[in-house]
Amino acid sequence: MCGILGIVLSENAQDSTSIAPMAVDCLTALQHRGTESSGLVGTNGCFNDHFEIVKGHGLVRDVYSNESIGALKDSIAVVGHNRYSTAGMKNAINCVQPFVLYTAAGLIAVAHNGELVNAHRSRDKILRSGVGLSTDTDSELIGQIISKTIAQNIKCRGENYEISGDISKELAATMSAIELSYSLVVMTYDRIYAIRDPYGNRPLSIGQIFSTKKQKNGNVNSPLSFIVASETCAFPAGTKFHSEVEAGELIEISKTGVKSIWQMVPKPKAFCIFEYVYFARADSMFEGQQVHGVREECGKILAIESPIEVDIVSTVPDSATAATLGYSLQSKVPYEPVLYRNVYVGRSFIQPNNEMRQTAVTRKFGVLKDNVVDKRIVLIDDSIVRGNTMRIIVHLRIASPPLRYPCYMGINIASKNELIASNLDENEIAESLGADSVKYLTLEGLEKAVQKNAKLPTESIGHCVACLNGKYPISIDF
Ligand code: SF4
User: Fold this and answer.
1) Which atom number of ligand 1 is nearest to the Cα of residue 405?
2) Mean pLDDT rounded to a whole number for the chain
3) Structurally, what CATH architecture does the domain formed by 3-267 represent?
């Protein structure tokens, strides 16, 4: 998944304002999107100065300290990244984003969410052009494509090319050269660009942050900064939502405001439907609706599609909580907790390998025995990927359709063999997990839930469901 972030100070902000502590809070709010490493890069707005970089492996709270972010105190803009790796050497420090590189137009920093489908073609091309790569990550590759395009454009950029932070033409050319999937935040010395691939596969939203000052006549809100982030849950309190970056859109964010610079010819929209099912935080907004509401709707439809006579409805905490509420409301069966989740164990799905995922699962849940004994229970979960979580528990309704195909757009499901639903039907899964029955939400049910309250014109709505039906947004080189 990965979480990406950019903050630019508004020209109206007070001189003493430091955006670094706010950026750390925002990355903490995006922690669920990646726990392997985190990085923040800041610019002080002077062309000739270096970028300040704070990076490390582990959780946001382990990477940053008051001391280390002190280096970012004069920043007028920062970009940040929480990493969940799908491609690339997992432990190498040079894989920790944002990537910083010198280009013919000065320093740039790149933070990327997604995975380039068919990246080997672009990799071959850049290597054959004489540009070396120090990692096998797509994100470095994107940085080098931008850098090469800047070098090619030097002659047309005019005399001041070396002091202009405007690289919009080169970014537009880069967008045309790479297909899917990317949401990007790119920083030059004086501005930030927010970019989304033409299918809109991974999310990216923009907001404006205000500070509240007490004055004699009451409180006055004044613009403090602009923010771009993978999810709106990263927006600090008091942020006014501006817009989602459209599929194929290039947006410039500077001290004067937010400007849409370029829009690619739209492709069929393929926003990852699993952002709604599992990945995103329940309080985030996509397509004009809150994720929590969609999950609740999934639970209601699941109750209609797969009813069962039981005493209580319960949940696998936390991402299935909203679907469970929906199932309980629709079926009128009371909700009772049966599992206690240890909040100090991270999300098992985003652990980098299966061994770590299984260990995380065994540490994750305790059973509330008094609520279980002599009860007929329907247990709701959001999805079954590999069956790791489920092997520990029983009796299931799943608030998403069976996950049968791998993802090539940034989610670490390496092969069909790993996916329990790709090899077994519902009865076989029930037997394998020791459940009395297993039923999934249908794909029609999920699409209905996602579309019910979306506040977008119908033609702007479209979702990637490739891991559910095997139909990918573009053809994949296997
Ligand atoms: S294949 Fe599945 S997980 Fe991957 S982008 Fe599409 S919907 Fe999301």
Assistant:
1) 1
2) 88
3) 4-Layer Sandwich (3.60)
